[in-house]
Structures are given as structure tokens and as C-alpha cells.
Amino acid sequence: MTLYAIFAPRPGRDALPEAVPEKFSWFATLLPPVHAFVHRVWDQLALYLLGVAAIVIAERWTGLDAAVWLYILLALACGFAAPGARRRALRRRGYAAATHRFALDADLARLSAMEPRS
Predict the structure, then answer these.
(1) Residue 74 belongs to what domain range?
(2) What spatial distance separates the first Cα and last Cα of the chain, rounded to whole Å?
(3) Residue 2 has what DSSP assignment?
(4) pTM for this structure?
(5) Which residues pair with 4 in a beta bridge?
């Protein structure tokens, strides 16, 4: 079971709540730019591109082996930062943090958040 942060849309919008898993993202680690485009996380994409540019420039002095390990470290940092970046992006789009739910997947977490509590 995974903990999901549930974000509710602005009142008056016909959008469903969004569920952000509070865990490491393999998708963001293996394909950082694709993850950023899919989830519209532009700040993380900009930092990733700056990091890659810095690694390419520093490779001249550090060597290829160090550059490879620095890229692996950058990719891991993207995987750990992915949930926080998605939360910030949702807040910028007008979503508000509503609650947290434990569920097997994001759809079940969203359904759990939408059903009334008794």
C-alpha cells in the first residue's frame, strides 16, 4: 500500500482530484525529461537541464567516469524529488491539498477521497 496525497481542484471546476504517490519515482529516474513533460513539472525540467549542462561542462576536468556517476546521482535526485515537484505543480495550477489516503493505486486513492465519510 502506498500513501497518496490527494489534491482537490478549485471549486467550480469540473476536474477530478489528483493523487500524488509519496514514494520514489522510477519513471522520473529513468526518463527525467519525459516525466517532466508528462506531469508538466517545468521547474524540475529546468533544474535537470542545468544539471546535465553542468555535468557536460565539468566532464572536461573530472573525466568521463566521474561524469557518468554524477549523471546517475542527478537521475536519482530526480526520482526522489518527483513527488514534491508534482505537488508544487498542482498547487500552481490551482489545486489545494485535501487529504492523504493509503491505497493500492492512484485511482483507488482518488475514489476513496471522493466518497462521503459517515
Answers:
(1) 2-114
(2) 23
(3) E
(4) 0.85
(5) 21, 101
Q: How many domains is the chain built from?
A: 1
3-state SS, residue 100: strand
Reading the block at residue 4, the C-alpha cell is: 497518496
Grid coordinates of 106 = 492512484
Position 109, amino acid? A
Cell 508544487 -> residue? 88
- pLDDT tens for the chain, residues 1 to 118: 999 999 999 888 888 899 999 999 999 999 999 999 999 999 999 999 999 999 999 999 999 999 999 999 999 999 999 999 999 999 999 999 999 999 999 999 999 888 877 5
What ranges in 1-118 are assigned the alpha helix state H? 26-30, 32-39, 42-62, 64-92, 106-114
Q: Are 19 and 37 a contacting pair, CB within 8 Å?
A: no
